[in-house]
Amino acid sequence: AELTVEKMCDILEMYMDTITKANQEIQNIVTHMQMSGQQMTPEMEEPLKKMVESETNKVFSKFGINTMIFQAACEKYNKHPKFIAKANEMDQKRKMAAAGAGAMSPTGMAAPPAAPATPAADDGELD
Q1: How many CB atoms sit inside 10 A of residue 21's CB?
Q2: CB count, 10 Å around CB of 124?
Q3: How many other C-beta atoms can be found within 10 angstroms of the C-beta atom of residue 10?
Q4: Could you tell me the end-to-end alpha-carbon distance of the chain, in angstroms, rounded to an integer?
Q5: In the chain, where does DSSP find H-type helix?
Q6: Measured on CA atoms in the order 4, 85, 93, 53, is the torsion positive or negative?
Q7: Local confidence pLDDT in tens for the 127 residues of the chain
């Protein structure tokens, strides 16, 4: 099935929401650990990344796509005004959520580990 820009916007929204939720869970885990005097180690980041991946994969399979297709579609539409608007909207939402959740996590994992480059990531000329 053809991935329309509208459908891609839906997927992007669900994808970003999923990542935001997963990051909040990770944030909770990290905070909990720090309060009990534990340190986050690289070994522990791996299963957390896997958790985020499996959550985002659920989003993709719901739409019958995979990460590769999603990345390709992001590239295809990254100049499309509708897609850019959605990406920017999701970015604002994410920033607000991050601010609410105490900004960046100590491990710097606030950004999704394997997120495809959404248009918002490379809008250097718009700043």
Answers
A1: 13
A2: 6
A3: 13
A4: 35
A5: 5-35, 42-62, 67-77, 81-100
A6: positive
A7: 578 999 999 999 999 999 999 989 999 988 999 999 998 888 888 898 999 999 999 999 999 999 999 999 999 999 999 999 999 999 898 888 777 765 544 444 444 444 444 444 444 444 3
pTM value is: 0.72
Other C-beta atoms closer than 10 Å to the C-beta of 37 total: 6
C-alpha span between 88 and 82 (Å, rounded): 10
Nearest to 12 by CA among 63, 81, 51, 79: 63
For residue 44, CA distances in Å to 39, 69, 105, 107, 115 come to 10, 29, 14, 11, 19
Q: Are 77 and 126 in contact (CB under 8 A)?
A: no
Place of tokens 């991050």: 98
Distance CA 3, CA 52 (A): 23
